[in-house]
Amino acid sequence: MSLLASYTSAVAFRRERFQPAVLAETERILVLLLCLEPGQAIAVHTPGIDLALVVLEGDGMMTVGDREDPISPGAVAVVTAGTARGLRATGRLVALAVASPPPTAADHGAVGRSGRPG
To answer: Which ranges constitute the DSSP H helices of 1-118?
Structure first.
């Protein structure tokens, strides 16, 4: 079991790219805190994993399939495996992401190498 008293202790930002922080991981689930500065993005990609994302702080745009919608604190997105998804911060953004199963390097390809839209 993992218990984090407050997600705020894991919030960290980097100017050069978005900052993911692993909060918990098992064979079946990965829990991440995603911290993005304005203009940073997680490129649209189509991994074979399910994703639940909850916006905790800030604003942005989330792509799911062929839609792009604004997101703000309290927004919840659930994306099924094989569906395109991406995230772009319009303000300083903090989101909790839960992926199942944990993604592999093949699931994310160029996502880990680029934190700014190109």
So the answer is: 105-108
Helices (H), ranges, 12-112: 105-108
Residue in the block written with tokens 């705020």? 8
Tokens of 13: 């930002």
Which amino acid belongs to residue 46?
A: T
The alpha carbon of residue 62 and the mean position of all alpha carbons in its chain are separated, in whole angstroms, by 10
- pLDDT tens track of the chain, all 118 residues? 678 899 999 999 999 999 899 999 999 999 999 999 999 999 999 999 999 999 999 999 999 999 999 999 999 999 999 999 999 999 999 999 999 999 888 876 656 544 444 3
Give the domains, in start order, of the chain with CATH numbers.
18-104 (2.60.120.10)
Q: Is 46 exposed, middle or buried (0-12, 13-18, 19+ CB in 10 A)?
A: middle
